[in-house]
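JOB MANIFEST
job_type = single_chain_structure
chain_count = 1
residues = 143
[input]
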Amino acid sequence: MTGRLAGGLWPVAVLGAILAVAACTRDEMPEASDGRALFLEYCSVCHGESARGDGEMARAMSTPPKDLTLIALRHGDSFPRAKVLSMIDGYARSDLDGPSMPEFGELLKGDLVPLDTGDGVMTPTPRKMVALLEYLESIQATR
């Protein structure tokens, strides 16, 4: 058996190992650092680099953007993952709520990763949205 592996099957074994490592890497959950880059690209112009609602465009808005570091404090010290995702993807947005956020279709593209938004159910969610969610959760102020 060792002779067969050394003689002709070793390339197959190496390829299998490479594919296994690649599959594990692709399935890793996004982290807050991934979300920070997305935040700077899509959100900071209004919410500011510090996410406190002081971006370049904030001065021109009749209602300033919210301080995103206070989301958990505004919700009883609990970060409402499902609600935040709904605001980002536009599901929970309304022009009646104040200045509307732009559509972020780019965040909905790409592969999906499983995410528990707090209900115990793993829901396939766009990777970029999960990354942004992780970042926002990581910058929450505490009492």
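[summary]
Confidence is low (pLDDT under 50) at residues 17-25.
DSSP finds six helices and two strands in the chain.
exit_status = 0
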